[in-house]
Amino acid sequence: MKLRDFFKNGKPSDKKEGTVSKTIDGLLFKVVWDQDDNSGYLRGTIDKNNWQIGTVEMHSDGKGTPYVAQDLGISPKYKRQGLASKLYDYIESLGFNVEPAPPEQQTDAGKAFWKSRQQK
Predict the structure, then answer these.
(1) Closest alpha carbon to 51 in 69, 32, 28, 18
(2) In what order do the strands lie in the sheet with 17-24?
(3) How far apart are CA 42 and CA 112, in angstroms?
(4) pLDDT digit string, tens, across residues 64-118
């Protein structure tokens, strides 16, 4: 299903489940989600030439609370190029509310990422 079809009847985050993708700067950004009244799961990926170079997994309690990132990874060759930020920006553009995991669950790199993101 194309992104424009979702927006005819509200934003993608209003749907219980779905998959959308968009090419940004030659990379394929894809978001898959499944949510109900008790839980929500979202997975975002970045592909280059059919190779996955980045991924994030997020969870929510399904009651309208923000999605919390549980795991974010970018292939070493592609780090420090803003790809994680682009992935998060894409997810948020779909209407999903995202927030960081508690600091004690973040790596030093994760803390630096969220610090720079909050300064935007």
Answers:
(1) 28
(2) 17-24, 27-35, 40-48, 51-60, 67-74, 98-99
(3) 22
(4) 788 888 888 999 999 989 999 999 999 999 888 898 888 898 889 888 888 888 8
Per-residue pLDDT for 30 more than 50?
yes
Q: Is 74 strand, coil or helix?
A: strand
Q: Scanning the structure block, which residue is given the tokens 């079809």?
A: 5
Residue 83, H or E segment: helix 83-93
Distance set, CA 99 to CA 48, 49, 74 (Å): 26, 30, 18
Class of domain 3-111: alpha beta
User: How crowded is residue 57: how many other Cβ atoms within 10 Å of its Cβ?
Assistant: 15
Residues 90 and 31: beta-carbon distance below 8 Å: yes
